[in-house]
Amino acid sequence: MTILVTGGAGYIGSHTCIELVKAGYDIVVVDNFVNSCMEAVNRIRRLCGVEFPFEEIDLTDYSATDGLFDKYKIDAVIHFAGLKAVGESVTMPIEYYRNNLNSTLSLLSAMKKHDVKNFIFSSSATVYGAEAPVPYNEATPVSRITSSPYGNTKLMIEYILKDTAKAISGFNAVLLRYFNPVGAHESGEIGEDPTGIPNNLMPYVARVAVGKLDMVHIFGNDYDTPDGTCLRDYIHVVDLAKGHVAALQKIKENCGVFVCNLGTGKGTSVLEMVKAFSKSCGKDLPYEFTARRAGDLPAFWADPSFAEKELGWKAEKGIQEMCDDVWRWQSKNPDGYRS
Ligand code: NAD
Ligand code: WQD
């Protein structure tokens, strides 16, 4: 079975390529390198031991996307490609809607033409919105609108896929709602490599540990949580990658629309993350408490029981392993793929 992995040079896509090859799938990888680089593809190939085909294509280009399906016999698409910075999406909504919606629509158009009916989509816990009770489970209604244009693209794409599955008989649409992916491959060869100053906690902490940034700023310590800092459901990226392999199994059962959380079911505080990372890198990382970040929710985590029941998948790696693996990646590659 051949899987088209879009955004396969990116953080989650790169780890998923490895798990797909391990599980015996053939892959074709596509990326336009808007947030990644060829070195990532070289390293994935090395780790897989397979020279899989790679195409540098912007998926918003309908004819280039269509050409992919002429060139390769694709059985399923895993669609990671997209812009993902929440803050940036607030200042660049047009670019976010254009990139994320058009890339999905161009894939679906090409799939329709070539009679490809299996689609796995990288959605996000952000679709549950600010009002949902925790833990989030799949029966929790999605919010009418999310807190950012980025989140709204996820919500809109979920609707596009549901409508497509209604209109095309036999179309399988798996919507995987990720919680907070962190960690890196155990080899330390691939990992998360944001450009500029990271917005997300884990890459920021890793850059403090490697001496590229001075200290961690913890956004708020007056939340109604055990230590006053926010709680999130951090999931190791390799566990997340394996969740996609499990989802392909579901597709083989002709699941139709299938919505599933990928999380661990455990909330961890910002302070606990900083402490765990300090243990991984062997030094106390400096931090200070600053004002709350606008838009942050105090606490949310997944109810992961549906994934376990339906996919036979469960996250296995804990917080310390996540931090150890990020530290291995960051210390071996202090400048990411440019090291
Ligand atoms: P990433 O930026 O590392 O990977 C996305 C990849 O898509 C990049 O390599 C980028 O170059 C590529 N891309 C973007 N637009 C493209 C286009 N038009 N054509 C071709 N390639 C394009 O991000 P990631 O963290 O690996 O996230 C993967 C997916 O998972 C995204 O859709 C993201 O929204 C979603 N997601 C991520 C998180 C997270 O915290 N990382 C959480 C929930 C959902
Ligand atoms: C985690 C916690 C911050 C940085 C985002 C998206 C979400 C999903 C995953 C895509 C929060 C705190 C952070 C820092 C801090 N992405 N923090 N100092 O906001 O939970 O989720 O990524 O779908 O949609 O919103 O992740 O890593 O930014 O923050 O104190 O320098 O760390 O306040 O409590 P978040 P994050």
Write the layout of secondary structure elements.
Elements: E1 2-6, H1 11-22, E2 26-31, H2 38-48, E3 54-56, H3 62-71, E4 76-79, H4 86-91, H5 93-113, E5 118-124, H6 149-167, E6 172-178, E7 180-182, H7 201-209, E8 216-219, E9 231-232, E10 234-236, H8 237-252, E11 257-262, E12 268-269, H9 270-281, E13 287-290, H10 305-311, H11 319-332
Parallel strand pairs: 1-2, 1-4, 2-3, 4-5, 5-6, 6-11, 7-10, 8-13
Antiparallel strand pairs: 9-12
Helix pairs in contact: 1-2, 1-8, 3-5, 5-6, 7-9, 7-11, 9-11
The site of UDP-4-deoxy-4-formamido-beta-L-arabinopyranose has 17 residues, from helix 7 and strand 8.
Briefly, what is this?
This protein is of the alpha/beta class and 339 residues long. It has eleven helices and 13 strands.
Properties at a glance:
alpha/beta; binds UDP-4-deoxy-4-formamido-beta-L-arabinopyranose; single chain; globular; 339 residues; two-stranded parallel sheet; seven-stranded parallel β-sheet; binds nicotinamide-adenine-dinucleotide; 11 helices
Helix content: 40-55%
Report the sheet-strand fraction.
15-25%
Given helix and strand content, the structural type is alpha/beta
Shape: globular
Main beta sheet: 7 strands, parallel
Output the number of helix runs. Answer: 11
Poorly predicted regions are none
Q: What ligands does this structure carry?
A: nicotinamide-adenine-dinucleotide, UDP-4-deoxy-4-formamido-beta-L-arabinopyranose
- Span of the ends, CA to CA: 35 Å
Spatial order of the strands forming the largest sheet: 3-2-1-4-5-6-11
**Strands, count:** 13
SSE arrangement, N to C: EHEHEHEHHEHEEHEEEHEEHEHH
Q: Radius of gyration, rounded?
A: 19 Å
Mean pLDDT level = 98
